[in-house]
Protein: Heme chaperone HemW
Organism: Flavobacterium chilense
Amino acid sequence: MSGIYIHIPFCKQACHYCDFHFSTSMKKKDEMVLALAKEITVRKNEFENEIVETIYFGGGTPSVLSNEEINFLISEVYKNYNVVENPEITLEANPDDLSAERIFELSKSPINRLSIGIQSFYEEDLKMMNRAHNSAEAIKCLQEATKYFDNISLDLIYGIPGLTDEMWKKNIETALSFGIPHISSYALTVEPKTALSKLIQTGKIAEPQDEVASNHFMILVDMLQKNGFIHYELSNFGKENYFSKNNSAYWLGKKYIGIGPSAHSYDGVKRGWNIANNSLYLKAIQNNELPIETEVLTISDRYNEYIMTGLRTIWGVSLDRIENEFGAEYLKYLLEQSQKFLNDDLLFIENNILKPTPKGKFLTDGIASDLFYLNLED
């Protein structure tokens, strides 16, 4: 099974923390939709022998597209690819785009999963992050969305300066009150060249503290697990049968095609990424060119990616797979590098699977980087 990701590179306004590729100008939106449709068609041979299980509209803010534009792009996928009978079709959306009428219309479309960018239910947090919606819109859209959609995910951000533990608990409680079956939650991260970075440098916003984020993470894990959520990936929690099929496919190394500027693709052997420039992307597509760069992954690249994705998920890192797929030298290296984390109760081995302990989960990315193999000759 494979997936198709469609990147919609437009937003109404720029969130202070975001470093994804997007434009706040909608002038080229119509042109972009046609170009996306063309790329979908042009790349169909890449999935000639594949069955598409997921279609995911990410961004940017995909909900800036009209329902007609969304349905048009979905129809182009169906025209050109073999699609499973009941695919997971996700639309990332912001609360300010989800009026009661819009939600009802979407419920009549092929979209069957909403991923809603709530981030916080506190007005001060939303203003600090420069979100386009307010707290009332966040509440209202969830009240409406849950009437028509069963499969809903919402995003929450923790580690926000000024967000106390009690406020964070209240955010989680509010999310849970809607019966949402999936929550994605991320620490506020200061990326270079973002507005947030500049605001911190000029002293207008306090810098996020790792200790605060770590406490928020532990509160999150505890509260969601007590409410029947499975912590299946570092930043993702789902009720049984509500894991994101799209995201799970990434972590499990399945093939996917990324459509649109800045979108990434993976075919099991090589990775590709489209140019992160709307004008250059449009020009290339209009000239019947694919604006994509590719790299063939070395054995070390594939090992490192497996370590990173495996440790972030409930599936862990299979030591048998390491030995069978990468060889005894890689297994020996992994066991040697893991020893200090095993001794410190940050990792454990069970049924020949290497996983982080509850204490090690928040540190997963740093641990994984220490397990990377950088010096092997491929």
Summary: The two ends are 29 Å apart (CA to CA). The longest helix spans residues 210-226. The chain is about 40% helix and 20% strand.
